[in-house]
């Protein structure tokens, strides 16, 4: 397919993930219109050579594919069906790719509501972080109709290194993502507990990092997040509040299923405590700082 024949894409939500995804799509030769509640984010995208729109409806008017990269279900619903929403202007055969992490039941409801209007909905949560988003190397956990996949595939190929096709209806992608988030949240909380406990023991935490990353106790989250603690750098790559939200969704899902999740419940309390201590918008490795504050332990960058 020549670049002139590529579908027009709108990316709604130009945060750290959405901006990288929009950039990857442009690099792949798509015409991309960006839209964000932050005028500065939209202006930056335009300055980088993209197109800009003030509302989801405006961004979606010329789009064959709309990629929604917002925080939660409520924002996704507002983008679709709120005032100035994409559903007002989406072409009948356009596809809406929803990348927000949400309860699978809500993903099913939004898909049903949009599909009733004749449009396609792809439930497509993402994993990989801002750097992989910018490189077009995300993992995308997608489910939806064959028609939704067919319509979305050119954009998915540009954004993902790994695309998992997880079912023919919305909700499956969301459910897979929640299992990932359960593990991610527990692993960050455990890694934070371990590094702070090591500091309390008077250990050289840089040496602890070196030893653990070469040992059986390592996790992807320990290896990825604990350098933030070593550097005392809590600028948010992924904020504490994300896991307050996601582990909260897991508690709701588990309660409804009458399924016990005590380990993720404990992790949720650690994120809640960190948020309550004023670090909700900081990097999720701030759970280690919370441990340090409570126990009078010295970590790099803490008083």
Chain-wise SSE layout:
Elements: E1 9-12, H1 16-27, E2 32-35, H2 39-47, E3 51-52, H3 56-60, E4 65-68, H4 73-81, E5 95-98, H5 104-115, E6 120-123, E7 126-127, H6 129-135, E8 138-142, H7 146-159, E9 160-165, H8 172-200, H9 205-212, H10 220-230, H11 240-257, H12 262-279, H13 286-295
Parallel strand pairs: 1-2, 1-4, 2-3, 4-5, 5-6, 8-9
Antiparallel strand pairs: 7-8
Family: Belongs to the HIBADH-related family. L-threonate dehydrogenase subfamily.
Pfam family, one: NAD_binding_11
Domain 6-phosphogluconate dehydrogenase NADP-binding: 9-166
Structure characteristics:
NAD binding; 6-stranded parallel β-sheet; 2 domains; HIBADH-like_NADP-bd; EC 1.1.1.411; NADP; alpha/beta; 303 residues; carbohydrate metabolism; 3-stranded mixed β-sheet; N-(1-d-carboxylethyl)-l-norvaline Dehydrogenase, domain 2
Describe this structure as you would to a colleague.
The chain has 303 residues and is α/β, with parallel strands linked by helices. The chain has two domains: 3-169, NAD(P)-binding Rossmann-like Domain (Rossmann fold, 3-Layer(aba) Sandwich); 175-295, N-(1-d-carboxylethyl)-l-norvaline Dehydrogenase, domain 2 (Orthogonal Bundle). 53% of the residues lie in helices and 12% in strands. The chain contains 13 helices and nine strands. The strands form two sheets. The protein has a six-stranded parallel β-sheet with strand order 3-2-1-4-5-6, sandwiched between helices. Strands 7-8-9 form a three-stranded mixed β-sheet. α2 links the parallel β2 and β3. α1 (16-27) runs parallel beside α6 and α8 runs parallel beside α13 (286-295). The longest helix is centred in the middle third of the chain and has 29 residues, at 172-200. The chain is globular, with a radius of gyration of 20 Å. The termini are far apart.
């Amino acid at each position: 397919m020549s670049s002139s024949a590529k579908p027009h894409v709108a990316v709604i939500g130009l945060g750290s993930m959405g901006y990288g995804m929009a950039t990857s799509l442009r690099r792949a030769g798509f015409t991309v219109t960006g839209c964000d509640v932050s005028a500065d984010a939209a202006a930056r995208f335009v300055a980088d050579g993209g197109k800009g729109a003030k509302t989801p409806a405006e961004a979606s008017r010329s789009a064959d594919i709309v990629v929604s990269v917002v925080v939660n279900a409520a924002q996704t619903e507002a983008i679709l069906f709120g005032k100035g929403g994409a559903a007002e202007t989406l072409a009948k055969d356009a596809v809406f790719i929803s990348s927000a992490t949400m309860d699978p039941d809500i993903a099913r409801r939004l898909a049903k509501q949009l599909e009733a209007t004749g449009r396609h909905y792809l439930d497509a949560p993402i994993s990989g972080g801002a750097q992989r988003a910018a490189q077009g190397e995300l993992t995308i956990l997608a489910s939806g109709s064959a028609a939704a996949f067919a319509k979305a595939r050119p954009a998915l190929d540009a954004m993902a290194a790994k695309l998992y096709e997880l079912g023919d209806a919305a909700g499956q992608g969301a459910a897979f993502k929640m299992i990932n988030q359960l593990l991610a949240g527990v692993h960050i909380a455990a890694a934070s507990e371990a590094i702070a406990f090591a500091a309390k023991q008077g250990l050289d935490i840089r040496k602890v990092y070196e030893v653990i990353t070469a040992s059986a106790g390592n996790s992807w989250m320990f290896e990825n997040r604990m350098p933030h603690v070593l550097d005392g750098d809590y600028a948010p790559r992924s904020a504490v509040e994300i896991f307050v939200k996601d582990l909260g969704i897991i508690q709701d899902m588990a309660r409804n299923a009458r399924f016990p999740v005590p380990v993720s419940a404990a992790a949720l309390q650690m994120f809640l405590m960190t948020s309550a201590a004023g670090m909700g918008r900081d990097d999720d490795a701030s759970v280690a700082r919370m441990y340090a504050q409570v126990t009078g332990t010295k970590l790099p960058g803490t008083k």
